[in-house]
């Protein structure tokens, strides 16, 4: 096996994944997507399918529908038409057909919770894993977060701890080689998908760290610029198997009473110690949920 060649293929597909995510709400021309990979457009489709087990178009469509499902559940002020356009669909009718085909119910039924067959289903699902009233003692503040210039590597094997740790090890090696680590470096993980909507093995995670502006993208890492935003910042110390319950409690118990709703950017975790040092122990971190007034 040629490990250098395989690493080059993986790096190119990872850059395509980042590009797709950044342009999901607009027109995504497959020729432009192929150009990001620097593979021949005649072969890109098969290479992407081999790496991701989905065609490029199927991957884009699934991400758009899953983003729409997130909006339906968490951004109640948006109409179905607003959501369709924000997720890159050309019309609400096109969106409606695609959504029902993918999820088996209409968008309005999904938003109302009727996609859960019964209350018993809800209570046995990951959507409802805490009993009513069993909420954490919130240690949260609302903060204005400045822009972040990030080097990032995606983990495309779901929210699997060994795979995520492997991605962090790759990013740390790159950072040491490029003298990118400073005393004020911030390490953050961006969870791109909600595992209650996206199949667990298809959830996407970005390992990222702040870097100097003059450091540019290379063949190993992608560069992401996160704009300034207001975040609800939750100061927590959690075991790995407590993450999902905590997130669900935030969305179920804290947000509805906050006068805020999630902004159009994924939540992310700022680690107060390198992730590799927390394996088997509690993770000390600040969970950032971008928010705007309702």
Give a structural overview.
It is a single chain. By secondary structure, the chain is α+β, with helices and mostly antiparallel strands. The chain folds into two domains: 3-112, Homeodomain-like (Arc Repressor Mutant, subunit A, Orthogonal Bundle), CATH 1.10.10; 140-293, Multidrug-efflux Transporter 1 Regulator Bmrr, Chain A. Helix content is 39%, strand content 20%. The protein is built from ten helices and nine strands. It has helices spanning 3-22, 30-37, 44-52, 56-74, 80-86, 92-103, 107-112, 119-124, 161-177, 243-254; strands at residues 140-145, 148-155, 187-191, 205-210, 222-226, 229-238, 260-262, 268-271, 283-293. Strands 1, 2, 3, 4, 5, 6, 7, 8 and 9 form a nine-stranded antiparallel β-sheet that branches. The longest helix has 20 residues, at 3-22. The radius of gyration is 19 Å and the shape is globular.
